[in-house]
Design a protein that fits this description.
By secondary structure, the chain is of the alpha+beta class. It has two domains: about 15-300, Transferase(Phosphotransferase), domain 1, CATH 1.10.510; about 315-750, YVTN repeat-like/Quinoprotein amine dehydrogenase (Methylamine Dehydrogenase, Chain H). The strands form eleven sheets. A six-stranded antiparallel sheet has the order 1-2-3-4-6-5. A six-stranded antiparallel sheet has the order 11-10-14-45-44-43, with no helix packed on it. It has a four-stranded antiparallel sheet with strand order 15-16-17-18, with no helix packed on it.
């Protein structure tokens, strides 16, 4: 077992006096390398991204925060040992902790017992006390910033994320911090102090105790809304800890306990034999995690920096052999002089779009995914059958390859949309860009969106997007001219302020929105929601339905009916409304009061049945005319998974992907379920959350946020894969063409092929 990965072409050989020998990870601010000091000490060196280095405000604040962080001393922190804020690419070095990230440990081995939770909490509280003692606030405490070691947890990256405030990170609309761990005061723009870190500590304990977030999963804006407006779900926490965690997660920072109070309260943990616990050995950890640490510390560190050999420049394709885990990567065009801002800062939440366009009840971006037509897909014999089967790695009869057609430097956020020979992207500059799908040449740029773009999709020759003011724009796909725009004013009730859209759907000349609104500060409620319909041509409000408790981000239109999810006083409900009038047709009770309506994550309608998935592993089938439940089917997985769009129904089979609602770095699945009964037919496990794309030469295609494109034979289940990117490729597939982020700041176009071995 090792915590580092080999170096790649383009990685530095040295940073300051430190010799780089491996990769440890990456984040929104930079890449982290394993290094050796001149005296041979193992060190973690973080090098900030180039676009941040170009920002004078970031440099100045980075220097101040690093100076403060160097004053932090404590047994449960990884201290800063060196830094150069004035380097061409600013960097800092901390003591290397050969440990397992908390998120990895929970995802791999499951939830923790109370004894380990108390030990974890006391160590983290002591670390925060040391950090706060020198007037530093972490502001980004999350599972990946907690490393587990035999002698206690270690908090890393303290005091550094604050340097990103008031820089390009925030001006481009990114959130500094991680959904579910950011305190409510930070989300509403108020001052954040040490109590904000206590909130994150409570969220970490809830995650380790339950395997999911205290505020559910799904898109970042939905999680953030629940943090501000709703109570945490502490189901599954040991009784003795639930009250402590609840106090840490109080909305009012003044009501949260202090770090010394938490050290005293949690520090009385006991060993398994009942003796008072100490951090002198790994017995504070769950046994499987302790075993991983033993293996990790036994693994030798790399002796020399050995960058990955560059691919053969004459190799035209990205090819996988028979074994699906053996990946050969080809050169995908010359890298730009500097990586784009969007490529460096893109967050997983941006991948799973918060707005989806529907026309005649079908998502335009699902047109290709609807090619999953074979009834036997994911249910063949030679690849294994039944839920949980992953196929035979040696049974692959084909090689998967992507031959590059073109690439161009292009900052973009989210997934491209391909329609009528054009690739439309939401640029990092806040504009919409249309590129010729065959050549990559820019056809037009639409820069009239105020406050940045949020691309919805393409329908009837119109590109639809909205901006931060709530105005929805429709742009002619051929010319780039605006066809119409609809503002948020008509659906914003008096006494409220428009906040954001949870979902936008356009169908039949009507704009349907799930929206969230702010209330006056003196209002006892935190906020409110509404489902509304507006005439696209005139902007006139056709109808609106206020929602008191909570509103799902899932929304779909089919045959004159609008479908969506609402949280009510006694639980979560799936609703059907007349799309023209807004009159309620029926509602289906989807879950208890413990289940958030926002957890309804994917909807599709087929042959008189509505299928929708939630973030608690469950797929539902409901009669579209009467609203009566037909069946439910639960994924055969150990942790919570969120059903992802698209859901595709064909040949009597429902196909869908699912990923973790609490972490985009956890594994996912692609599942096939019998449409008439809900019987699981097959589950193909993936290294990260999957995105279905379609069927090519008898194999289903999907990509994952780990950067790979997969092909699964619909008859045998045999699989092949190839790497598209160093990160989430945000791939869009159109026939045998794929358009994706190569992880190098460029938009790539390639031709997919499957060839017999």
């Amino acid at each position: 077992m090792q915590a580092f990965t080999p170096l790649e072409a383009g990685d530095p050989e040295r940073v300051g006096p430190y010799r780089i020998v491996g990769r440890l990870g990456a984040g929104g601010m930079g890449r982290v390398y394993l290094a050796r000091s001149p005296g041979g000490r193992a060190t973690a060196v973080k090098v900030v991204h180039e676009e941040l280095a170009e920002d004078p405000a970031f440099r100045a604040r980075f220097g101040r925060e690093v100076a403060a962080a160097r004053r932090v001393t404590g047994p449960f922190t990884a201290p800063v040992v060196d830094a150069d804020p004035d380097a061409d690419l600013p960097w800092l070095a901390t003591a290397h902790v050969p440990g397992v990230p908390l998120g990895t440990a929970v995802a791999t081995h499951g939830v923790w017992p109370e004894r380990s939770l108390r030990a974890l909490g006391s160590g983290l509280a002591e670390a925060l006390e040391a950090i706060h003692r020198v007037d530093v606030v972490h502001r980004d405490l999350k599972p990946s910033n907690v490393l587990l070691a035999p002698d206690g947890p270690r908090v890393i990256d303290f005091g550094i994320s604050v340097a990103a405030d008031d820089t390009k990170l925030t001006t481009t609309g990114a959130v500094v911090g991680s959904p579910g761990y950011l305190p409510p005061e930070q989300l509403v723009g108020r001052a954040v102090g040490p109590a904000g870190d206590v909130f994150a500590l409570g969220a970490l304990l809830a995650y380790a105790a339950t395997g999911t977030g205290a505020f559910g999963g799904g898109p970042a804006h939905g999680v953030n809304y629940r943090v501000v407006h709703e109570d945490p779900d502490l189901t599954g926490l040991p009784g003795g800890l639930a009250e402590v965690v609840a106090r840490c997660l109080a909305k009012d920072p003044l009501r949260r306990p202090g770090t010394l109070e938490l050290v005293e309260e949690l520090g009385r943990w006991e060993e398994a034999d009942g003796t008072h616990g100490t951090f002198t050995r790994a017995t504070w950890l769950p046994a499987p995690v302790a075993a991983d640490l033993t293996a990790l510390r036994a693994a030798p560190l790399p002796e020399e920096a050995a960058a990955a050999a560059p691919a053969d420049p004459d190799l035209p394709t990205v090819t996988v052999g028979v074994a699906p885990t053996a990946v050969a990567t080809a050169r995908l065009g010359a890298p730009p002089q500097r990586a784009s801002l969007a490529a460096r800062l893109r967050r997983p939440a941006l991948r799973r779009r918060t707005a989806v366009l529907a026309a005649a009840g079908t998502l335009v971006t699902l047109a290709v995914a609807a090619a999953l037509l074979l009834p036997g897909a994911f249910s063949g014999s030679s690849g294994g059958s039944g839920a949980g089967s992953t196929g035979s790695p040696t049974a692959a009869a084909k090689q998967l390859a992507v031959q590059e057609l073109w690439s161009r430097e292009q900052e973009f956020n989210g997934r491209p949309v391909v329609a009528d020979g054009k690739v439309v992207v939401e640029g990092g500059d806040g504009a919409l860009h249309a590129l010729d799908a065959d050549s990559g040449d820019t056809e037009w740029t639409y820069d009239e969106l105020g406050g940045g773009a949020d691309l919805v999709g393409v329908s009837d020759g119109l590109v639809v997007a909205y901006d931060s003011s709530g105005t929805v724009h429709a742009v002619d796909l051929d010319s780039g001219d605006r066809a119409w725009s609809v503002g948020a004013g008509p659906h914003t009730a008096p006494g409220t302020d428009f906040n954001l859209y949870l979902r936008v759907v356009v169908a039949g000349g009507t704009v349907y929105v799930n929206a969230m609104y702010d209330l006056p500060e003196d209002d006892e409620r935190y906020g409110t929601y509404a489902v509304s319909a507006l005439d696209a041509a005139t902007g006139r409000l056709n109808w609106t339905r206020p929602v008191e408790y909570g509103l799902s981000h899932a929304l779909a239109v089919e045959d004159g009916v609008l479908y969506g999810g609402i949280r009510e006083a006694d639980g979560s409900y799936f609703h059907a409304w007349d799309a023209e009038t807004g009159d309620p047709l029926w509602r289906y009770h989807a879950g208890t009061s413990r289940q958030y309506a926002g957890d309804l994550t994917a909807i599709t309608v087929s042959d008189g049945t509505v299928y929708f998935g939630d973030s608690r592993n469950v797929l539902h089938a409901v009669d579209a005319r009467r609203g009566t439940g037909l069946w439910t089917s639960e994924l055969d997985v150990d942790t919570l998974k969120e059903w992802l769009e698209p859901l595709v129904v064909s040949g009597g089979v429902v196909y869908g992907g699912a990923g973790s609602p609490s972490s985009h770095y956890d594994s996912g699945v692609v599942s096939a379920v019998a449409a008439d009964s809900g019987k699981p037919l097959r589950t193909e496990r993936t290294e990260r959350a999957p995105q279905l794309h379609g069927l090519l030469d008898g194999s289903a295609l999907f990509s994952t946020e780990a950067g790979t494109l997969h092909a699964v034979d619909a008859r045998t289940g045999a699989s092949a894969q190839t790497r598209l990117s160093t990160g989430d490729p945000a791939a869009a597939v159109d026939g045998d063409r794929v358009y994706f982020d190569g992880g190098d700041g460029r938009l790539h176009a390639g031709r997919i092929s499957l060839t017999s071995t």
